[in-house]
């Protein structure tokens, strides 16, 4: 080697070595497809025989859903799908739909419209509390408790109920990446028993949060809650949020990326009813559950995950759903708040 060649190789080494080391350290902690697949399958095996919780029954049709139904799906921003159990049987989406009507209103009218007309704070009261409406005069709520959710639905533009409905279902379809349908049994069952939601909508109308047709808003809300989804659909919807608002498989983008963070913020503070704080403390994941047994969670930039399992705990959240997602996310480093100091990262 000539002195010039030696000098050149020394310089190259100094320039390249740190970059190579960084790359190597990243590689050492990176999670590959095998890790994802293993984590999803392990959680399924671990919790498939867990026999805790009970189907919701205040909507009679929900009590009839098979409590053994259990499916887990995880989708990464590059569109890889990992599944275990039954990811094709459908349940009604229920409150998980609230995330996507909020998305629709943000896209249509912007953050301020939600903030001013509904609010973005947890109420500290149950999801269908009438006291909360009275206490806050219809304000200072959020789009995930029923008063806020029915109001959110009422804010979707459309000259007729049909055109509002199309806007709702098209948004859900775009997030899921396929055409979804309404579970007519659930829709009928909830329509016959939703007097409390009707009362909530009338009160929100009285407080001028809902501007017109409160009972029409309640009906559209009931229909939106009755849309059928499976675990794979739900994971795709969560992954669209994990991927800046773009569906990782179809490439369709129902909302601008800037609207994703505000949605995740409300999921973090109010996604799991009265246990939202406990859930965030344990996992750090923005999430949303529904009384049909669906649970979605988002690890921004890493994955969207969902479980369908109808038995709920006392707070109304899927028992297997919470356990499985917490385990999988822990195995994959999904908690966005969990970081090592810079020096420790370099040493790994
Ligand atoms: N449609 C249900 C209701 O309004 C949704 C409840 C939920 O999933 O939290 O009661």
DSSP helix fraction? 40-55%
Q: What is the name of the CATH superfamily?
A: DD-peptidase/beta-lactamase superfamily
Report the mean per-residue pLDDT as an integer.
92
From the spread of the alpha carbons, the general shape counts as: globular
The CATH class assignment is: Alpha Beta
Largest sheet: 5 strands, antiparallel
Structurally, the number of domains stands at: 1
Question: Which key phrases capture this entry?
Answer:
348 residues; alpha+beta; Beta-lactamase; five-stranded antiparallel β-sheet; two-stranded antiparallel ribbon; 16 helices; 7 strands; 53% helix; globular; binds glutamic acid
Written account of the structure:
It is a single chain. The chain has helices at residues 3-29, 33-47, 60-63, 97-109, 111-117, 130-136, 146-154, 161-176, 184-193, 195-206, 214-225, 231-242, 260-270, 276-283, 319-332, 342-347; strands at 71-75, 81-85, 91-92, 228-229, 287-289, 294-299, 303-308. The two termini are 35 Å apart. It has 348 residues and is of the alpha+beta class. The longest helix has 27 residues, at 3-29. It contains 16 helices and 7 strands. 53% of the residues lie in helices and 8% in strands. The model is unreliable at 11-28 (pLDDT under 50). The strands form 2 sheets. Strands 2-1-7-6-5 form a 5-stranded antiparallel beta sheet. The chain has a single domain (27-337), classed as DD-peptidase/beta-lactamase superfamily (Beta-lactamase, 3-Layer(aba) Sandwich). Glutamic acid is lined by residues 94-95, 127-128, 146, 190, 197, 225, 290-291.
